């Protein structure tokens, strides 16, 4: 079994894309287990997505404070609804705020 570097896997995946073959056929022709090739394709996509999201982040963060007004809390009955872009998520009454916050942060990271 030959260990390949990340760069070698990038080249193999580029060859696969150029070949027009299925991943399974390409892997077998190259003497690679198809599941291994598919794992590397997924890993490279994930890495590429992480790197592109890092590139979009601004380098100099400036924090601006926004004035707010604090009011008496209202008693809310029913569901809590959160909208992110074209996604709407509803949480039933009594859902812990920490849980709602965690879900919103995860969804925001994916959007």
Characterise the protein shown here.
The chain is mainly alpha-helical. It has two domains: 6-56; 80-110, no CATH class. It is built from four helices and two strands; from the N terminus they run αααββα. It has helices spanning 6-19, 23-30, 34-56, 97-110, and strands at 80-84, 87-91. Strands 1-2 form a two-stranded antiparallel sheet. Helix 2 crosses helix 3. The longest helix is centred in the middle third of the chain and has 23 residues, at 34-56. The model has no long low-confidence stretch (mean pLDDT 81).
Domain count: the total is 2
The count of helical stretches stands at 4
Question: Nearest-angstrom radius of gyration?
Answer: 23 Å
Strand order of the largest sheet: 1-2
Q: How far is the N terminus from the C terminus?
A: 39 Å
Please provide the count of β strands.
2
Strand content: 5-15%
> How would a textbook summarize the main sheet?
2 strands, antiparallel
- Shape summary: elongated
Low-confidence stretches: none
Mean pLDDT: 81
User: Which structural category do the helix and sheet elements fall into?
Assistant: mainly alpha
